[in-house]
Structures are given as C-alpha cells and as structure tokens.
Amino acid sequence: MGVPHTENGPVPGSPRPLVSDDCGQGGCVHVAGQVYLDTLTEWERILDGLLRSDGDIRMDLSGLTFVDVAGATSLARTAQRLPGDRRIMVRRPPASLRRVLELFWPELVAIEVVE
C-alpha cells in the first residue's frame, strides 16, 4: 500500500511519505509526513538512530500530520529504553500522538511534550 501519485507528485489528501532531517547537533531530528503502517519501519529506524546519541533527544514533529497507535507505541517503547534520566522532548506533535500518549502512557516521564 503506497502513497497514491500522479505525474506531478502525491495525490492531494493522500497519506504523505515520512521524511526526516537533522535539526542540529546529534540527538535532534525534524520529522514530516505521516506515521502509519507503510511508514512505521522508517519511523522506527529514526527512533533507533536517536537512541545512539548522547543526552536528551529532541524531536520537532511540527511537520507530522498523523501518528497511528503503532507509531505512538514505538515512541513510548523508545522512551522506556532510554538509560538514566534521558528524555525525549517532542515539539508540536500532531493531536493524534498527543491523545494516544495521554491515554496509554500518562505516567511516562521520559517523554516531554513542548510547544
């Protein structure tokens, strides 16, 4: 199940592919698109890469429009694997991710949502 395309690019309103780029020194990434079945493997690759950095992890998710429950679960599991008092600071996540985190992991202090 891929993203529907025309010769000019993705069909408007269709799921967006997941793209990421570094937003500074190690441990910081900007992610855009949508996290769902077709992009979950890439999302998990991004999260695994961030685990290898030192210090807190900063994720700018202002470019994400949707994260499904599996994507939220991957983020929560990554946070649970962080050693010591490290955290994942999530900037401007989509409402879907915020709701799932509040519902299923309200006590997970390793994820901090910032605006």
Automatic annotation (TrEMBL):
It comes from the Bacteria. This is STAS domain-containing protein. It comes from Streptomyces ficellus. Residues 1-20 are annotated as: Disordered. InterPro entries: MlaB-like_STAS, STAS_dom, STAS_dom_sf. Residues 29-102 form the STAS domain.
